[in-house]
Amino acid sequence: MSINQTVASKAALENEMRTPAQETTVETQREGIAVEEGKTVGTPYSDNPKFKLRNVEVFYGENRAIKNISLDIARNEVISFIGPSGCGKSTFLRCLNRMNDSIGICQVKGELLLDGENIYSAKNDVVELRARVGMVFQKPNPFPKSIYDNVAYGPRIHGLANRKADLDEIVENSLRKAGLWNEAKDRLHDMATGMSGGQQQRLCIARAIAVSPEVILMDEPCSALDPIATAKVEELIAEMSESYTIVIVTHSMQQAARVSNRTAYFHLGHLVEVNETTKVFTSPEHELTESYITGRFG
Ligand SMILES: Nc1ncnc2c1ncn2[C@@H]1O[C@H](COP(=O)(O)OP(=O)(O)O)[C@@H](O)[C@H]1O
Ligand SMILES: [Mg+2]
After folding, report:
1. For residue 295, is pLDDT > 50?
2. Nearest ligand, measured from the Cα of 266
3. Into how many domains does the chain fold?
4. Which of 33, 93, 244, 271 is deepest in the core (most CB within 10 A)?
Protein backbone atom coordinates (compact mmCIF):
# COMPACT_ATOMS: atom_id res chain seq x y z
CA MET A 1 0.00 0.00 0.00
CA SER A 2 1.34 3.41 -0.90
CA ILE A 3 1.83 6.35 1.41
CA ASN A 4 -1.29 7.97 -0.01
CA GLN A 5 -3.26 4.81 0.44
CA THR A 6 -2.05 4.74 4.01
CA VAL A 7 -3.27 8.31 4.36
CA ALA A 8 -6.62 7.37 2.84
CA SER A 9 -6.83 4.40 5.20
CA LYS A 10 -6.04 6.63 8.13
CA ALA A 11 -8.80 9.01 7.08
CA ALA A 12 -11.20 6.08 6.85
CA LEU A 13 -10.08 4.90 10.25
CA GLU A 14 -10.67 8.29 11.79
CA ASN A 15 -14.01 8.48 10.08
CA GLU A 16 -15.04 5.18 11.64
CA MET A 17 -13.84 6.35 15.00
CA ARG A 18 -16.09 9.37 14.87
CA THR A 19 -19.02 6.97 14.90
CA PRO A 20 -18.27 5.08 18.11
CA ALA A 21 -19.42 1.51 18.36
CA GLN A 22 -22.74 1.12 20.11
CA GLU A 23 -22.14 0.36 23.73
CA THR A 24 -23.87 -2.97 23.93
CA THR A 25 -21.09 -4.67 25.85
CA VAL A 26 -22.41 -6.79 28.68
CA GLU A 27 -20.33 -7.21 31.81
CA THR A 28 -19.14 -10.76 32.28
CA GLN A 29 -20.26 -10.55 35.88
CA ARG A 30 -23.84 -10.03 34.91
CA GLU A 31 -23.77 -13.23 32.89
CA GLY A 32 -22.14 -14.98 35.82
CA ILE A 33 -19.81 -16.78 33.42
CA ALA A 34 -16.09 -16.65 34.12
CA VAL A 35 -13.56 -15.90 31.40
CA GLU A 36 -10.01 -16.86 32.18
CA GLU A 37 -7.36 -14.47 30.90
CA GLY A 38 -5.07 -15.92 28.25
CA LYS A 39 -7.07 -19.11 28.00
CA THR A 40 -8.81 -19.70 24.68
CA VAL A 41 -10.83 -22.87 24.23
CA GLY A 42 -10.96 -24.78 20.95
CA THR A 43 -8.31 -24.71 18.23
CA PRO A 44 -6.51 -21.36 18.26
CA TYR A 45 -3.28 -22.78 16.78
CA SER A 46 -2.34 -24.02 13.33
CA ASP A 47 0.42 -26.20 11.83
CA ASN A 48 0.77 -23.77 8.96
CA PRO A 49 0.48 -20.26 10.38
CA LYS A 50 0.63 -17.13 8.25
CA PHE A 51 0.38 -15.07 11.42
CA LYS A 52 1.66 -16.36 14.73
CA LEU A 53 0.38 -14.07 17.48
CA ARG A 54 1.39 -14.62 21.09
CA ASN A 55 0.40 -12.85 24.31
CA VAL A 56 -0.86 -9.82 22.46
CA GLU A 57 -2.03 -6.91 24.58
CA VAL A 58 -3.24 -3.55 23.31
CA PHE A 59 -3.60 -0.45 25.44
CA TYR A 60 -5.35 2.83 24.71
CA GLY A 61 -3.65 4.87 27.40
CA GLU A 62 -4.54 3.02 30.60
CA ASN A 63 -7.35 1.02 29.03
CA ARG A 64 -6.25 -2.52 28.19
CA ALA A 65 -8.47 -3.28 25.20
CA ILE A 66 -6.82 -6.61 24.26
CA LYS A 67 -5.96 -8.96 27.10
CA ASN A 68 -3.25 -11.51 26.45
CA ILE A 69 -4.46 -13.08 23.22
CA SER A 70 -2.61 -15.87 21.42
CA LEU A 71 -3.78 -17.06 18.01
CA ASP A 72 -2.49 -18.48 14.75
CA ILE A 73 -4.06 -17.41 11.48
CA ALA A 74 -3.49 -20.21 8.99
CA ARG A 75 -2.26 -19.73 5.45
CA ASN A 76 -5.18 -19.34 3.01
CA GLU A 77 -7.88 -19.65 5.61
CA VAL A 78 -10.84 -17.34 6.05
CA ILE A 79 -11.24 -16.56 9.72
CA SER A 80 -14.09 -14.49 11.18
CA PHE A 81 -13.84 -12.38 14.30
CA ILE A 82 -17.18 -12.07 16.09
CA GLY A 83 -18.35 -10.76 19.46
CA PRO A 84 -20.29 -7.95 21.13
CA SER A 85 -19.55 -4.37 20.15
CA GLY A 86 -16.50 -2.95 21.91
CA CYS A 87 -14.92 -6.35 22.62
CA GLY A 88 -11.75 -5.53 20.67
CA LYS A 89 -12.28 -7.10 17.22
CA SER A 90 -11.21 -4.02 15.25
CA THR A 91 -8.36 -3.27 17.63
CA PHE A 92 -6.96 -6.79 17.22
CA LEU A 93 -7.46 -6.74 13.44
CA ARG A 94 -5.58 -3.44 13.15
CA CYS A 95 -2.56 -4.99 14.91
CA LEU A 96 -2.06 -7.22 11.88
CA ASN A 97 -0.97 -4.42 9.53
CA ARG A 98 0.04 -1.91 12.20
CA MET A 99 -2.94 0.32 11.48
CA ASN A 100 -3.02 1.07 15.23
CA ASP A 101 0.30 2.92 14.77
CA SER A 102 -1.67 5.94 13.63
CA ILE A 103 -3.52 6.17 16.97
CA GLY A 104 -1.18 8.11 19.26
CA ILE A 105 -2.28 6.63 22.58
CA CYS A 106 -2.33 3.07 21.32
CA GLN A 107 0.37 0.64 22.40
CA VAL A 108 0.74 -2.94 21.16
CA LYS A 109 2.65 -5.55 23.19
CA GLY A 110 3.45 -9.21 22.62
CA GLU A 111 4.84 -11.24 19.74
CA LEU A 112 3.27 -10.73 16.32
CA LEU A 113 4.91 -12.70 13.53
CA LEU A 114 4.07 -12.73 9.81
CA ASP A 115 5.78 -15.67 8.10
CA GLY A 116 7.96 -15.91 11.18
CA GLU A 117 9.06 -12.26 11.11
CA ASN A 118 8.22 -9.73 13.78
CA ILE A 119 5.96 -7.18 12.11
CA TYR A 120 6.68 -4.61 14.83
CA SER A 121 10.47 -4.76 14.52
CA ALA A 122 12.09 -1.45 13.64
CA LYS A 123 13.48 -2.79 10.38
CA ASN A 124 10.04 -3.81 9.15
CA ASP A 125 8.78 -1.19 6.73
CA VAL A 126 5.14 -0.28 7.39
CA VAL A 127 4.39 0.70 3.78
CA GLU A 128 5.69 -2.65 2.56
CA LEU A 129 3.80 -4.46 5.33
CA ARG A 130 0.55 -2.82 4.25
CA ALA A 131 1.16 -3.90 0.65
CA ARG A 132 1.44 -7.48 1.93
CA VAL A 133 -1.44 -7.11 4.35
CA GLY A 134 -4.15 -5.04 2.68
CA MET A 135 -7.24 -3.68 4.36
CA VAL A 136 -10.84 -3.02 3.39
CA PHE A 137 -12.90 -0.80 5.66
CA GLN A 138 -16.51 -0.62 6.72
CA LYS A 139 -17.23 2.44 4.60
CA PRO A 140 -15.93 2.22 1.02
CA ASN A 141 -13.17 4.82 0.66
CA PRO A 142 -12.22 5.17 -3.02
CA PHE A 143 -9.85 8.03 -3.89
CA PRO A 144 -11.49 10.95 -5.69
CA LYS A 145 -9.96 9.69 -8.94
CA SER A 146 -11.08 7.59 -11.88
CA ILE A 147 -11.88 3.90 -11.50
CA TYR A 148 -8.72 3.08 -13.45
CA ASP A 149 -6.51 5.34 -11.36
CA ASN A 150 -7.85 3.92 -8.10
CA VAL A 151 -6.76 0.42 -9.08
CA ALA A 152 -3.53 1.56 -10.78
CA TYR A 153 -2.45 3.66 -7.83
CA GLY A 154 -0.67 1.03 -5.74
CA PRO A 155 1.04 -0.71 -8.70
CA ARG A 156 2.31 2.67 -9.94
CA ILE A 157 3.76 3.63 -6.56
CA HIS A 158 5.34 0.23 -6.05
CA GLY A 159 6.69 0.16 -9.61
CA LEU A 160 4.86 -3.06 -10.45
CA ALA A 161 4.29 -2.13 -14.09
CA ASN A 162 6.80 -0.51 -16.44
CA ARG A 163 4.63 -0.31 -19.52
CA LYS A 164 1.11 0.98 -19.97
CA ALA A 165 0.04 -2.42 -21.30
CA ASP A 166 1.27 -4.08 -18.10
CA LEU A 167 -0.62 -1.61 -15.96
CA ASP A 168 -3.77 -2.10 -18.07
CA GLU A 169 -3.45 -5.81 -17.47
CA ILE A 170 -3.10 -5.42 -13.70
CA VAL A 171 -6.12 -3.10 -13.62
CA GLU A 172 -8.22 -5.50 -15.68
CA ASN A 173 -7.20 -8.56 -13.67
CA SER A 174 -7.81 -6.83 -10.35
CA LEU A 175 -11.25 -5.64 -11.46
CA ARG A 176 -12.05 -9.12 -12.76
CA LYS A 177 -11.01 -10.71 -9.46
CA ALA A 178 -13.17 -8.18 -7.64
CA GLY A 179 -16.13 -9.13 -9.85
CA LEU A 180 -16.33 -5.59 -11.20
CA TRP A 181 -14.89 -5.79 -14.71
CA ASN A 182 -18.16 -6.10 -16.60
CA GLU A 183 -19.66 -3.16 -14.75
CA ALA A 184 -16.54 -1.01 -14.99
CA LYS A 185 -14.91 -1.76 -18.33
CA ASP A 186 -16.81 0.89 -20.29
CA ARG A 187 -16.36 3.59 -17.65
CA LEU A 188 -12.78 3.12 -16.50
CA HIS A 189 -12.11 6.84 -16.71
CA ASP A 190 -15.21 7.92 -14.83
CA MET A 191 -14.88 9.06 -11.23
CA ALA A 192 -14.98 6.18 -8.75
CA THR A 193 -17.10 8.24 -6.42
CA GLY A 194 -19.96 8.04 -8.94
CA MET A 195 -20.35 4.29 -8.42
CA SER A 196 -22.88 2.66 -6.12
CA GLY A 197 -21.80 1.77 -2.57
CA GLY A 198 -21.48 -1.91 -3.40
CA GLN A 199 -19.42 -1.17 -6.52
CA GLN A 200 -17.20 1.19 -4.52
CA GLN A 201 -16.54 -1.52 -1.96
CA ARG A 202 -15.61 -4.01 -4.69
CA LEU A 203 -13.38 -1.30 -6.18
CA CYS A 204 -11.63 -0.99 -2.81
CA ILE A 205 -11.15 -4.75 -2.88
CA ALA A 206 -9.73 -4.47 -6.43
CA ARG A 207 -7.39 -1.72 -5.22
CA ALA A 208 -6.19 -3.94 -2.38
CA ILE A 209 -5.70 -6.90 -4.76
CA ALA A 210 -3.78 -4.81 -7.33
CA VAL A 211 -0.55 -4.83 -5.30
CA SER A 212 -0.68 -8.64 -4.92
CA PRO A 213 -1.16 -8.83 -1.16
CA GLU A 214 -0.85 -12.05 0.81
CA VAL A 215 -3.47 -11.19 3.41
CA ILE A 216 -6.65 -9.12 3.23
CA LEU A 217 -8.17 -7.70 6.41
CA MET A 218 -11.81 -6.71 6.27
CA ASP A 219 -13.52 -4.78 9.05
CA GLU A 220 -17.27 -5.23 8.68
CA PRO A 221 -16.97 -4.80 4.89
CA CYS A 222 -20.67 -5.30 4.24
CA SER A 223 -22.28 -3.34 7.03
CA ALA A 224 -22.90 -0.33 4.77
CA LEU A 225 -24.17 -2.49 1.87
CA ASP A 226 -27.58 -3.76 0.82
CA PRO A 227 -28.24 -7.53 0.71
CA ILE A 228 -27.46 -7.91 -3.00
CA ALA A 229 -24.15 -6.03 -2.73
CA THR A 230 -23.40 -8.05 0.42
CA ALA A 231 -23.99 -11.32 -1.42
CA LYS A 232 -21.58 -10.21 -4.16
CA VAL A 233 -18.85 -9.38 -1.64
CA GLU A 234 -19.39 -12.72 0.13
CA GLU A 235 -19.08 -14.55 -3.20
CA LEU A 236 -15.88 -12.67 -3.79
CA ILE A 237 -14.49 -13.67 -0.40
CA ALA A 238 -15.08 -17.31 -1.29
CA GLU A 239 -13.19 -16.88 -4.59
CA MET A 240 -10.39 -14.87 -3.03
CA SER A 241 -9.80 -17.46 -0.32
CA GLU A 242 -7.98 -19.58 -2.91
CA SER A 243 -5.26 -16.99 -3.25
CA TYR A 244 -5.21 -15.04 0.00
CA THR A 245 -5.46 -15.34 3.75
CA ILE A 246 -8.57 -13.44 4.80
CA VAL A 247 -9.50 -12.08 8.20
CA ILE A 248 -13.00 -10.65 8.45
CA VAL A 249 -14.67 -8.85 11.34
CA THR A 250 -18.41 -9.19 11.13
CA HIS A 251 -21.39 -8.48 13.34
CA SER A 252 -23.42 -10.87 11.23
CA MET A 253 -23.25 -14.43 12.51
CA GLN A 254 -24.89 -15.60 9.29
CA GLN A 255 -22.08 -13.99 7.34
CA ALA A 256 -19.42 -15.62 9.54
CA ALA A 257 -21.16 -18.95 9.02
CA ARG A 258 -21.29 -18.45 5.24
CA VAL A 259 -17.76 -17.27 4.53
CA SER A 260 -15.28 -18.57 7.11
CA ASN A 261 -13.40 -21.77 7.90
CA ARG A 262 -12.78 -20.84 11.52
CA THR A 263 -14.51 -18.37 13.79
CA ALA A 264 -12.99 -16.55 16.77
CA TYR A 265 -15.25 -15.30 19.52
CA PHE A 266 -14.07 -12.19 21.42
CA HIS A 267 -15.47 -10.96 24.72
CA LEU A 268 -14.36 -7.84 26.65
CA GLY A 269 -10.85 -7.96 25.17
CA HIS A 270 -10.46 -11.72 25.68
CA LEU A 271 -10.33 -14.34 22.96
CA VAL A 272 -12.77 -16.84 24.43
CA GLU A 273 -13.06 -19.49 21.74
CA VAL A 274 -11.70 -20.37 18.31
CA ASN A 275 -13.12 -23.33 16.43
CA GLU A 276 -14.25 -24.56 13.06
CA THR A 277 -17.10 -22.27 12.08
CA THR A 278 -19.70 -25.04 12.00
CA LYS A 279 -18.69 -26.10 15.51
CA VAL A 280 -18.92 -22.55 16.86
CA PHE A 281 -22.46 -22.21 15.55
CA THR A 282 -23.74 -25.72 16.29
CA SER A 283 -21.91 -26.85 19.44
CA PRO A 284 -19.82 -24.06 20.93
CA GLU A 285 -17.40 -25.12 23.64
CA HIS A 286 -17.61 -22.05 25.85
CA GLU A 287 -20.73 -20.88 27.66
CA LEU A 288 -20.05 -17.28 26.66
CA THR A 289 -19.93 -18.23 22.98
CA GLU A 290 -23.19 -20.07 23.39
CA SER A 291 -24.80 -17.08 25.11
CA TYR A 292 -23.73 -14.85 22.26
CA ILE A 293 -24.79 -17.06 19.39
CA THR A 294 -28.15 -17.78 20.97
CA GLY A 295 -28.72 -14.04 21.23
CA ARG A 296 -28.63 -13.66 24.99
CA PHE A 297 -26.41 -10.62 24.52
CA GLY A 298 -24.51 -8.75 21.88
N1 LIG B 1 -9.08 5.07 18.99
C2 LIG B 1 -9.42 4.62 20.20
N3 LIG B 1 -9.09 5.33 21.30
C4 LIG B 1 -9.39 4.88 22.54
N5 LIG B 1 -10.07 3.74 22.79
C6 LIG B 1 -10.43 3.00 21.73
C7 LIG B 1 -10.14 3.40 20.39
N8 LIG B 1 -10.63 2.45 19.55
C9 LIG B 1 -11.21 1.52 20.33
N10 LIG B 1 -11.10 1.84 21.65
C11 LIG B 1 -11.60 1.06 22.79
O12 LIG B 1 -11.10 -0.26 22.71
C13 LIG B 1 -12.10 -1.20 23.02
C14 LIG B 1 -12.31 -2.14 21.85
O15 LIG B 1 -12.86 -1.42 20.76
P16 LIG B 1 -12.96 -1.98 19.28
O17 LIG B 1 -11.70 -2.65 18.93
O18 LIG B 1 -13.43 -0.87 18.42
O19 LIG B 1 -14.12 -3.08 19.46
P20 LIG B 1 -15.06 -3.79 18.36
O21 LIG B 1 -14.42 -3.63 17.03
O22 LIG B 1 -15.16 -5.21 18.83
O23 LIG B 1 -16.39 -3.12 18.45
C24 LIG B 1 -13.35 -0.40 23.40
O25 LIG B 1 -13.36 -0.25 24.79
C26 LIG B 1 -13.12 0.92 22.71
O27 LIG B 1 -13.76 1.95 23.40
MG1 LIG C 1 -15.13 -2.71 15.27
Report:
1. yes
2. 1
3. 1
4. 271
212: domain CATH number? 3.40.50.300
Q: What is the pLDDT of residues 156-172, one digit of tens each?
A: 999 999 899 999 999 99
Q: Is 94 in the pocket of ligand 1 (CB under 6 A)?
A: no
* Distance of CA 141 from the midpoint of ligand 1 (Å): 21
Instruction: Please check whether residue 22 lies inside any domain of the structure.
Output: yes
pTM of the model: 0.90
Say how far apart CA 298 and CA 295 lie, in whole Å: 7
| CA dist., res. 63 & res. 210, Å (int) | 37
Residue whose CA is at the smallest distance from ligand 1 atom 4: 60
The answer as to whether 61 is a domain residue is no
Identify the band that residue 12 occupies on the pLDDT scale cut at 50, 70 and 90: low
Report CA(51)–ligand 1 centroid distance (Å): 22
Q: Is 89 in the pocket of ligand 1 (CB under 6 A)?
A: yes
Domain limits at 163? 3-45+74-100+125-293
